[in-house]
Every structure is written in structure tokens, then in C-alpha cells.
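Notes from the 1:1 (GR / supervisor)

We went over the backlog. Supervisor wanted to see one worked example end to end before approving the batch request, so GR pasted a single chain during the call. The sequence is below; no edits were made to it. Supervisor asked that the structure be written out right there so they could see what the output format looks like.
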Amino acid sequence: MKKNYLFQMNKSIKNKWVKALESGKFKQAKGRLKYGNAYCCLGVLVEVTPNAGITTYRDNKIDNKYSCMAENSVPSKYFIKHVGLTQHRDVYKNKIKDIKINRVSKKTLDSLQEELKYKELDACLLLYTMNDDYGFKFKQIANFIRNYIKGV
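Structure output shown during the call:
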């Protein structure tokens, strides 16, 4: 059965990210990549990415070329390029309706689809929304990454 990937990224980084999200080592936060000693799912990606150039968080702000936009809620475009996180070549807008995630109701996914339907399908926006607005747990997000982001 052919997988219906929405995005793709560096395979090694993807595997480290999924493993970290499932490890239980990271406390989950909302609204920031890192808040105190807690992280959003994208903050975990930043933490596990080798050679990301991020050395310290200062007052929840990253202070170098990988600095984040939107008040540190999503990684910079430079960082996203570094990890190779892009739409998969077979993706068409609004494929969210095809997503299935363990222990997430169809009603929740329909609501997520409705919220994002007029926006460009973007991995950071989708993951940010899942983490912050819908309260998906790290293990559910890891399941999404494993099944809908192709490692290349």
C-alpha cells in the first residue's frame, strides 16, 4: 500500500525527532519552541537537529542565524531548509482530510481541516496547530510524522 505523504525531510533528522518525541524526555509546552524546560514539538526538532547552530536560548529567544519568527513559535525558514522539511511532491492542498492519527477523533481532524483549509498547507503551521491549538500529545505527533512525513 502506497503511503500518502504530505511532507518530506531529512531521514536521519526525522528519525531522531520521532524518537525524541516518543522518549518521554521532553516536557510539552505550547506557544513557544522552548518555554523554561518545556518544548513544543517543533522545539524538540530544533533540539535534536545536529549542527543547527543553536547554542543557547536567552529569555526564550534564539540569538543567531536560526532565530525564530512569530515570537519563537516556529523555526525560521533557514532552519526549515536545513532539515529539508518541504511538501512532498505528490501533495495537493487540503489533504488533511486523509490523515488518520491514533487516538484522535475524526471530529478533531475535521475541525483541524476546516481551520486550515484556506491556508497554504505548511508543515510548521500544521504541527504548530496540532501541538498548540488541538493539544495533540507528543506521541500522537510522532505518529503523524512517521506516517505523513517521508524521510529522504
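Supervisor's comment: The helical segments are 11-23, 41-48, 77-83, 106-116, 123-133, 138-148.
Batch request approved.
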